[in-house]
Amino acid sequence: MDYLIRQAAERIAYARHLVISTGAGVSKESGVPTFRDALDGLWAQYDPTELATPQAFQRNPKRVWDWYTYRREMVSKTHPNPGHYALAELEGLLPKVVLITQNVDNHHQLAGSRDIIPLHGNLFAFKCSTSCQGNPTSIDLDSLAPWNPEDGPPRCPYCNSGYVRPDVVWFHETLPEAQLTRAFEEAQNCDVMLVVGTSGAVYPAAWIPIKAAERGAFLIEVNPQPSELTRAMNIHLAAPSGEVLPQVVEVVKQLLHSS
Ligand code: BV8
């Protein structure tokens, strides 16, 4: 593994334009379960891809709202891990670093990454389910009059008819166009891409590393398991990101310091 870490660090240290693409695995060591981890207790009986849909919210707003409340409360007790901080540190070491994330837990922001493209929204942001003032009709939950949580989500304060919902991208919903367009542009212009903690199972996010590879970028994957993207990788560091990313960044710093 040390040899591969050195190989990866050499590519990253001299990258002109590094793009980082992360999935839920980068937050695993923070204690945030990935979609594929069975959630405990009440939620273990539900398939997340069934709950994270507009249809599920339409059918049973309270169940979906309660699932997100459970996840928000769980995530708010967790913190960025050394992997998040290592990725944030790269921004100050290299000429251009852009971080694309599928995650909605806000940990990259908390760890100090600045140039972030959030593809799937944010667990701690809210909007009107009918986009009554345009998409998104952002809502500050703390500014709402108290409501009875037994009744499920509160009503939108603007139209009082739509429900308040999490500002995340559900399955069968399109991703925010500006974010997706920029993510593909960055992927097609980078010379090195670091893919961390994603199964590559969800589209269109899974296309992003493929676009980079098609343009000749050097791809490095960090994932204890092979993913659906491993075949496209030049290097696969088969280790937890919280352990191996700090080691990679340490070698990057040595290389930059000695050059
Ligand atoms: C859309 C936010 C247009 C919500 C999420 C082709 C093209 C376009 C669309 C599709 C397509 N084929 C199918 C589709 C439809 C669908 C899709 O992709 N379905 C999949 C299931 C096949 N895509 C969509 O619906 C997208 N919308 O394209 O709009 C459209 C419109 C109508 C009809 C068709 C198309 C919207 C997708 C976004 C969904 N929202 N999240 C919320 O969070 O509640 S997706 C959610 O699941 C995550 O954001 C993440 O993206 C995804 C996967 O989650 P996880 O499994 O938890 O994480 P990940 O996959 O990253 O795997 C964890 C990895 O970590 C593993 O590999 C593991 O080994 C690794 N790991 C574990 N420990 C560690 C680790 N790695 C490092 N260190 C460790 N310690």
Strand content: 15-25%
Task: Summarize the amount of helix as a percent range.
Answer: 25-40%
What value does the average pLDDT take? 95
Radius of gyration: 19 Å
Give the tally of β-strands. Answer: 9
**Distance between the terminal alpha carbons, to the nearest Å?**
24 Å
pLDDT < 50 runs, ≥5 residues? none
Number of helices: 9
Spatial strand arrangement across the major sheet: 3-2-1-7-8-9
Question: Which compounds are bound in this model?
Answer: ligand BV8
- Look at the helices and sheets and give the structural class: alpha/beta
Largest sheet: 6 strands, parallel
Order of helices and strands: HEHHHHEHEEEEHEHEEH
What best-fitting shape do the alpha-carbon axes yield?
A: elongated
Overview of this structure, please?
- It is a single chain.
- By secondary structure, the chain is an alpha/beta fold.
- It has nine helices and nine strands.
- Strands 3-2-1-7-8-9 form a six-stranded parallel β-sheet, with helices on both faces. A three-stranded antiparallel β-sheet has the order 5-4-6.
- Helix 1 crosses helix 9.
- The longest helix has 18 residues, at 241-258.
- The model has no long low-confidence stretch (mean pLDDT 95).
